[in-house]
Amino acid sequence: MSIDRFESRFDREIESLGVRIKDVNQLKVRQDVFDEVTLLALYKLVHKGWITAMGGSISTGKEANVFFGERGDQDLAIKIYRIRTANFNAMSEYLIGDRRFSSIRRTRKDIVFTWTKKEFSNLKRAHAVGLLVPLPLIFDRNILIMEFLGEEECPYPQLRNVELPDPEAVYREIIMFMKKLYSEAELVHADLSEYNILYSDRPFVIDMGQAVTLDHPRARSFLVRDIANVNRYFGNLCSVRDEREIFAEITGLSLPGTR
Fold first, then answer.
1. Residue 259 included in any domain
2. Measured between alpha carbons, how far is 215 from 238 in angstroms, rounded to an integer?
3. In the chain, which stretches have pLDDT less than 70?
4. In this structure, are 169 and 150 located in the same domain?
5. What is the pTM assigned to this prediction?
6. For residue range 160-175, what is the model confidence (pLDDT) as tens digits?
7. Are residues 167 and 67 in the same domain?
């Protein structure tokens, strides 16, 4: 099916469900995003009343596309993991060893569906302890619907694109985020950087799909990497703490080879 025919069919079928399409020119529908499985999940979410309008793309990442949406007066972020082009091997690295999902089959579709469920679960755990992450609302198959972090349909900018008024205060807050995520939500983000922290008046952490529980065999090495990433970025903006000291504060443990 040509992309023009696919887009026309997509518009027609979505609108037939009563979903208003906002910013038609920005909603560039691609077959690797809106395949048959994704459309089925989208239809189910629409029928349940979770989506009343769908707008343009907010972001395009390595594994997923995020679109702006609405549920009545509520703004949404609709994250759609691409089944056909998702990095199967990269996702498996974070799923293998996570006892919550040890029984999944190793097909591409099952990996992506489980990844979506995992991000929902991780966000729910982080939000429950008061961390600044998007509130997860519902998921189905490869679609995750979350609270929209932004204003006037424009998402908050990534940390890397913001001139911070007080970099040291933001740095301290992100260290505290990692500590609370570890001690209270019992998770390690595992991919924390200036690319998945949004900033308004405070930093908001996104992209929690790869986050792992503390019993994951690589949890501590992922934490070491998160700390290094944060120090690397803020090292050009303010004074940063010793990475071993941060690790010990978060975990209560010493890094191997240190006292």
1. no
2. 33
3. 1-18, 21-32, 88, 102-103, 105, 256-259
4. no
5. 0.88
6. 999 999 999 999 999 9
7. no
